[in-house]
From TrEMBL:
Keywords: Kinase, Transferase. The keyword Kinase applies. The lineage of its organism: Bacteria, Bacillati, Actinomycetota, Actinomycetes, Micrococcales. This is Carbohydrate kinase. GO terms for molecular function: kinase activity. It comes from Lacisediminihabitans profunda.
Length: 398
């Protein structure tokens, strides 16, 4: 029997995720109504007077950054000053995936912490405007500096400057809502709470970052047996499996996980299903690229958010590739994640090759629902008098 891979995402940038008892619902949240994803879980069953067990489609855990994105700017020489063509302040890190999934209608929770500083307050305000994103477990910690990352995006290259303090360990409460799926980094031992909820039925997706040490430890492959779905990029996959192609790497990874999904940047994605022995390839949608930051996060979140639809894998991959492509047309990771209405507009305007009928029907229905629940626009984009032109030959979209 083919196992169904549910949904979700945490971040491959996760650090210090260990069990602890400090996580409690935040005492104060930004002014807003309670998230839809939380309210619906409290609805009484028609057959009894007891409340239904709260459930979340997706749980994202890890560091949430305040991303400061500067576009159309080269890395300055020592002592020099350069001016950007555009600027945006937007949530980043794990928030990229959480926002992307919630915008596709998945009930999504964020397990993380921010400081009580001005940057943390601004990020909190932006995230609070996402109607399907539950921030109950996003804690504001007095004295903690909210992680911040500066992105300098030029015509053909990107550079980053990041500051992140050691954070308190994260833990999902035993009496918390059930979770359809979550996503963890597999570079280190899985947190105890992840193993616990997997034993309770949560599907675990895994990712991995680039190994700057060059070791590509076999322990990572052994750890894959503790998860259900693995989503690396092609370079990571080939290094760990010692293969020469993304296709061979996906097949090799199928020895460890039920589903291996290898992203190939502008060349799309290849996936191997162990139960059927099927290799599926899907091309990406080519667009003019402004900022590829977070495109991989949008891909993973979109793939996971579609599990509940019961779609064939190739359709899910096609939508995930489209969402990733749409996200690179504007600045920011979380800010650029598409909603169903944007997906529908693109399909109407561009008529991409292939059968998009299933995705179109979903987008038409979902656009009406999401339009009624969106509380505010994405973070404001600021332009200078100089226009930032598109990157026509992107090196990486996923």
């Amino acid at each position: 029997m083919v196992k169904l891979y549910k949904l979700d995402a945490v971040s491959t940038y996760d650090r210090h995720i260990r069990s602890a008892d400090w996580i409690k619902p935040a005492q104060t949240r930004s002014p807003m109504i309670a998230p839809i994803s939380y309210l619906w879980s409290l609805v009484l069953s028609e057959d009894s007077a007891t409340a239904a067990t709260p459930h979340l489609d997706l749980l994202f855990a890890g560091s949430v950054f305040c991303d400061l994105v500067f576009a159309g700017v080269p890395l300055p020489e020592p002592g020099a000053e350069v001016f950007a063509d555009a600027f945006m302040l937007t949530p980043g890190g794990t928030a990229n995936r959480a926002v992307a999934a919630s915008r596709l209608g998945a009930s999504t929770a964020l397990l993380s912490q921010l400081g009580d500083d001005a940057l943390g307050s601004r990020v909190d305000d932006i995230l609070s405007a996402e109607p399907e994103l539950d921030l109950t477990w996003l804690r504001r910690v007095p004295g903690f500096q909210s992680p911040v990352s500066v992105s300098l995006t030029g015509q053909h290259e990107r550079s980053f400057i990041t500051y992140e303090e050691d954070a308190l360990p994260l833990d999902w409460p035993e009496d918390g809502p059930t979770v359809g799926a979550t996503h963890v980094g597999v570079q280190a031992e899985l947190p105890a709470w992840v193993r616990r909820i997997r034993a309770e039925g949560t599907v675990v997706f895994g990712g991995v970052g680039w190994d700057s040490s060059g070791e590509w430890s076999p322990s990572v492959l052994r750890r894959l047996r503790e998860i259900d779905v693995f989503v690396p990029n092609d370079l990571e996959a080939m290094r760990y499996t010692q293969t020469d192609s993304a296709e061979d790497a996906a097949r090799a990874l199928g020895e460890y996980v039920d589903l291996a999904v290898v992203t190939r940047g502008a060349r799309g994605v290849v996936a191997f299903e162990r139960a059927t022995g099927t290799l599926t390839e899907v091309d990406t949608i080519v667009v003019d690229t402004i900022d590829p930051t977070g495109a991989g996060d949008v891909f993973v979140a979109s793939l996971m958010a579609t599990e509940r639809f019961g779609w064939p894998l190739d359709v899910r991959l096609r939508l995930a590739c489209l969402c990733a492509s749409l996200s690179v047309r504007t600045l920011g990771g979380a800010a650029s994640a598409p909603r169903p209405a944007e997906i529908l507009r693109f399909l109407d305007a561009e008529a991409p090759v292939g059968d998009w009928s299933m995705i179109r029907r979903w987008a038409e229905a979902a656009a009406d629902v999401s339009a009624a629940s969106v509380q505010s626009p994405s973070p404001e984009l600021h332009h200078s008098t100089h226009h930032a032109g598109p990157i026509h030959t992107p090196e990486e979209n996923l």
